[in-house]
Design goal:
Elements lengths: L1 H5 L6 H30 L9 H12 L6 E4 L2 H6 L10 E3 L7 H16 L7 E6 L10 H9 L7 H10 L3 H4 L1 H4 L2 H5 L1 H16 L15 H11 L6 H16 L3 E6 L4 H4 L7 H16 L2 E3 L18 H15 L1
Parallel strand pairs: 1-2, 1-3, 3-4, 4-5
């Protein structure tokens, strides 16, 4: 009997499992604390969207206690040209994105914006600012790819799980950057700091874009020309507009389409004078087919109303929004 009692006893299974899970928890805590220290030292958050402006807008929407009855969507033209506090008697947030063509706006609005502002019910109105760039077959693919490939823009079960975990774990949210030292301490970090600072400086408190730096160089003109040369309508963007309107109408949300103004120097970049007419006719057709209001842009804008080839200057943006406000009601 004494011999039996002095022999080593096998470890009980539950004790082995407990040690394993305690070790796993300790390792997870160490990784999380290390990730937080590394990100804090880097001085800028890891980019999880296609650009920092989109990321900052999500942070704004997550922290705002306001309930918005009106949401503005579109590209940076709508982001700068439609000023929330100039829409009379409306609580408005501008959810437009840089390069936010309709194929991007559809998931951005329906999957990420509306569920952040619907605690007190959905908004009553969505104002969609559109220009010929939104429907151009030669513009938007780079943003579409960047949006769909970003951690927060991806779709599917694993992407949904990743977003849920990232909300609570710095390690999960930044694991891609943690694998690449340059993202937190090298040239890539310096680039990220510049982009982040630019986004912070240009983003208004209600999501509006406030970048009034002038850019009318020949290089900028060529960039815009390539986006609208040999102008053709993009059927994918038109289909995205129709699907989004159907979705919003099913929720009882009114959609107002707004034709955004462009300067004469923009119109001069078309290869044919009929190109802009094709865009306007498409917008009118969508309005009629979907039974939504269309506010047509006045044609009395000059180059001096714009800081570049597409974006209104500060005073003209406010005046344009006030004009829209009077028509939207």
């Amino acid at each position: 009997m004494a011999l039996i009692l002095t022999q080593p006893q096998p470890a009980r299974p539950y004790k082995t499992a407990a040690r394993f899970f305690i070790g796993l928890l300790a390792m997870a805590m160490a990784l999380e604390l290390g990730a937080r220290a590394a990100v804090l030292a880097a001085g800028t958050p890891t980019l999880r969207w296609h650009d920092y402006s989109a990321q900052l807008k999500i942070e704004q929407l997550d922290t705002k206690s306001d309930s918005f009855d009106t949401i503005i969507i579109g590209t940076s033209m709508a982001q700068q040209g439609l000023v929330p506090d100039a829409l009379a008697a409306r609580s408005t947030y501008n959810a437009s994105l840089n390069g936010g063509v309709p194929v991007v706006m559809e998931p951005w609005l329906t999957d990420h914006v509306l569920n952040r502002i619907s605690n007190d019910g959905p908004p009553t109105t969505v104002i969609w600012g559109l220009s010929s760039l939104d429907l151009s077959a030669t513009y938007g693919q780079a943003t579409i790819d960047a949006y769909n490939q970003s951690p927060s823009g991806r779709t599917g079960m694993l992407a949904t799980l990743d977003r849920a975990l990232a909300e609570h774990s710095t390690f999960v949210a930044n694991r891609a950057a943690l694998r690449d030292p340059s993202a937190l301490a090298g040239q890539q970090r310096q680039t990220s700091l510049v982009q982040y600072d630019e986004a912070v400086q240009s983003l208004g408190s209600s999501g509006e874009r406030r970048d009034f730096s002038r850019s009318t160089s020949a290089e900028r003109a060529e960039e815009i020309r390539q986006r609208i040369s040999s102008y053709a309508l993009d059927i994918d963007d038109i289909a995205a507009i129709i699907r989004t309107i159907e979705d919003l109408q099913a929720q009882g949300i009114e959609v107002v389409l707004v034709e955004l103004p462009v300067p004469p120097r923009f119109l001069a970049l078309y290869e044919t004078g009929q190109a802009h007419n094709a865009f306007q006719m498409a917008l009118e057709a969508i309005s009629e087919e979907m039974d939504v209001r269309l506010v047509v842009s006045p044609d009395n804008y000059t180059d001096s109303d714009f800081v570049d080839f597409t974006h209104l200057n500060e005073s003209s943006a406010r005046l344009f929004t006030e004009t829209i406000s009077a028509q939207v009601g």
